[in-house]
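Take a specimen:
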Amino acid sequence: MKILAERIKKLRENKKISDKKFTQAYVAEAIGVARQTYTAYENGTKEPSLETVEKIADFFDVSTDYLFGRTDIMVSHRIFEERAKYDLHDLELTNWYYELAKKDKKTLTKLRKISKMIENEKD
């Protein structure tokens, strides 16, 4: 599956920008496969089992739906757990929360600054 290969490669390469340890060998070891096997996943010459896809999703903290190309939103199960923790039942707010994954870095940086300003406000 081409999209799976593209997405896991992009995820790893993006992580490697800020942390050089994110080599194919590092990811392979973390998910319990040989480096050559993981390389084949990234190249699209071999498809991982569903169990391995779940391990990859957990490792990169994304959903399996994202890896398979069913969505462009990188929402993991941990996000749903956070949502339940804060009881976000407001549909509009929840949708906005999930749409954040689609925002560019400049927009997210601005939103983070605004959030910090709000957190630092004195009541």
